[in-house]
Design brief:
By secondary structure, the protein is an alpha+beta fold. 28% of the residues lie in helices and 30% in strands. Strand 4 and strand 5 form a beta hairpin. The protein binds 4'-deoxy-4'-aminopyridoxal-5'-phosphate (PMP).
């Protein structure tokens, strides 16, 4: 990865190479930490963070869910992200990774007395699933892992611990020759990708599963707003794997993945086997918004 100059750690701008933790950092052992993934795009008016408030709110909600008391306010965390991008003077698109973790000083599972630490890193990052994927689409495997059960984990939190499930699914998909995993819930309905939400298109209707077993995705919400504005009919309902196989189009959404078409699932070609028309329309609209080319969505951008 490409290093930046500084990482924000507990209120200080620390040189990238010095942003270190002790090996007895609580989160490293017991997995209670929460994070965000936010993007900033280089617009005609300079770098702009997309939906900063929504991402920062979700970060604080994630901490609330996993019972971590954060020593910073929403505004302080927003300002830290803005200032970090200024201090690093990036010349292209960046990915921002705020992380709230439990530090060094207490061991044992009772986490409440462990120090709460906050770090925010940002670095230059291109298309998560590849530039080619954005245009041609990717190949996806339904995972042998069920998505984290709501009976034992809390998927509304972007919690570090939830990503073991994602990581194993992604690993399995890649070693089997695919690019991404699609996880079903314990009942067999589509939950989400390892780090994305799913959309399918059938007979002109845009369909996305409810967020019962997935993160409340900000990109999914943006796509739904675009669809609403364009008058595209939308259904939020359960989807099975065979319905994905016979969809006219399918795509993933996520801050990192942006809008990535899916061209194949488990050896079944989706639609024409390349980016579908509605996918292209929504993807174009999404990029117009994040790059500041649609004045109606200016309120979603925070200029640096
Ligand atoms: N699901 C999971 C498990 C994720 O990690 C992500 C990425 N944050 C998403 C969905 C998409 O969420 P968002 O659009 O807010 O990035």
């Amino acid at each position: 990865m490409e290093k930046a100059k500084y990482i924000w750690m507990n209120g200080e701008f620390v040189p990238w190479d010095d942003a270190k933790v002790h090996v007895l950092t609580h989160t490293l052992h017991y997995g209670n930490g929460v994070f965000e993934g936010t993007r900033a795009y280089k617009t005609a008016k300079g770098l702009a963070i997309f939906r900063l408030r929504d991402h920062t709110k979700r970060l604080l909600n994630s901490a609330k869910i996993t019972a971590i008391k954060v020593p910073y306010t929403l505004e302080e965390l927003e300002n830290a992200q803005i200032e970090l991008l200024r201090q690093n003077s990036f010349d292209g698109n960046v990915y921002i990774r705020p992380l709230i973790y439990l530090g060094y000083g207490v061991m044992g599972l009772y986490h409440v007395n462990a120090p709460v630490e906050v770090a925010i890193a940002a670095w230059k990052w291109g298309a998560y699933l590849g530039d080619e994927g954005l245009e041609k689409g990717i190949r996806v495997k339904v995972s042998s892992f069920a998505r984290n059960s709501v009976k034992s984990t809390m998927g509304k939190a972007k919690a570090v611990a939830n990503y073991l499930n994602s990581q194993m699914a992604k690993y399995e998909a890649i070693i089997a020759g695919y690019e991404e995993a699609l996880l079903l819930d314990e009942e067999g309905f589509v939950a989400e990708g390892s780090g994305e939400c799913l959309f399918i298109v059938r007979d002109g209707v845009l369909i996305s599963p409810p967020n019962d077993n997935s993160l409340e995705s900000i990109t999914q919400d943006t796509i739904l707003k675009i669809a609403h504005e364009k008058g595209i009919p939308v259904e939020r309902r359960r989807v099975t794997r065979d319905e994905v196989y016979i969809a006219d189009e399918a795509f993933f959404t996520g801050t990192a993945a942006e809008v990535t078409p899916i061209r194949e699932v488990d050896g079944r070609i989706i639609g024409s086997g390349s980016r579908g028309e509605m996918t292209k329309e929504l993807q174009t609209a999404y990029f117009d918004i994040v790059y500041g080319r649609n004045p109606a969505y200016e309120h979603m951008l925070t200029y640096i």
